[in-house]
Amino acid sequence: MKHLSATQRLWFYRGLTLLVTALLAHLLTIWAVPRLIMRVVLHGPMAQSLNMHNQAAFPPPVTAQSRAVVMPSPDLLYSVCVYDLSQGAMRVRAAPQLPSYWSIALYSANSDNFFVRNDRQAAGKPVDVWLVPANGAPAQDAVPAGAEVVVSPSKTGFLLMRVLASDYQADQSMLETARRTLRCEAAHGP
């Protein structure tokens, strides 16, 4: 077995230190960045100005000056809600009744998308979700008839509803009515 010289050992340990540092930095970034982004989404200026904690909020339509989201789509109207399940379940309901695309997506505190319902999946029926934390499934009698139980991987998270608005000026009344059917509220029984 060949022994390493002092210079070779020095370069080996430098390389090993660099590799371990790069690995730790990569893992920390992969873990921390999504959580930091979601922290801003859940508690930042937009969340506070729209007062979207456990209730639906309806930001104005996207314009060329909109930059709350990187590269927002002017063809979509957004509705949002920050949920907090620390006090119990949350009920999410919507009945857009639109002939065009819409979707509701739920994101956990680390930005993972864990639930999506769109116009095709809903097939004209209203969305009724009983959102519960992972460690606290509801008693079956607490879930309203027809509601779909969805387990959130985190106690806090974000709901994003998108409504296609290809001609907002012409369809404004119908589109605004549709997106404002979104309700996010603490569940107090059926």
How does this structure look, described?
The chain is of the alpha+beta class and 190 residues long. The chain has one domain: Immunoglobulin-like (Sandwich). 32% of the residues lie in helices and 27% in strands. The chain contains 4 helices and 8 strands, in the order ααββββαβββαβ. The chain has helices at residues 6-43, 45-50, 119-122, 168-179; strands at 76-84, 90-94, 102-108, 113-118, 127-133, 148-152, 156-164, 183-186. The strands form 2 sheets. A 4-stranded antiparallel beta sheet has the order 1-7-3-4, with helices on both faces. A 4-stranded mixed beta sheet has the order 6-5-2-8, with no helix packed on it. Strand 3 (102-108) and strand 4 form a beta hairpin. The protein is elongated and about 80 Å long. The model has no long low-confidence stretch (mean pLDDT 86).
